[in-house]
Amino acid sequence: MDDENHTPGHDRFEAFRQAEALVQNRRPLDALKALQPVLEAEPDKPSVQLLAGRAYFHSAQLKHAERAFTRVLELDPADHYARFVLGRTLQRLGRLVEALGQLRMAWAMNPVPEYQDALSEVNARVRLQES
After folding, report:
1. For 38, how many CA atoms within 13 A lie in the half-sphere containing its CB?
2. Residue 88 is part of which domain span?
3. Where does the record place its TPR repeats (predicted)?
4. Is the whole model's pTM more than 0.70, yes or no?
5. 51 with 107, same domain?
6. Do 9 and 73 lie in a common domain?
7. Treating both helix axes as pointing N-terminal to C-terminal, what angle do 28-41 and 8-24 enclose, rounded to 10 degrees?
8. Backbone phi, then psi, for 58, in 5-degree steps?
9. pLDDT one-digit tens code per residue, 100-121
């Protein structure tokens, strides 16, 4: 029988924690490497997709980030943070109207200053484009 510290579940948990720390330390490519076995084993886990999306976002792999955040929202439509970072991703992709929709929903679900600031910024950019 396997030692309890070397079960696949424990190893994936450790890999997830390592990837989380790497994202926080602004090492997104290293985080993606650490997260790869977890992504392969648990592709439908919202927390795994969210962390992957954050790493993709911080490494400017915006199409991958968009797919990961969209997957989180398919699995958990009530995740306001996933909506916020999807909005920021769409903003960076230049898709401001789509970004505005996601940021509005995120702010409506959780009206925190960070969401309001992002919403105001994108709103202003959309108005500039329209004029």
Report:
1. 25
2. 79-131
3. 46-79
4. yes
5. no
6. yes
7. 150
8. -70, -15
9. 999 999 999 999 999 999 999 9
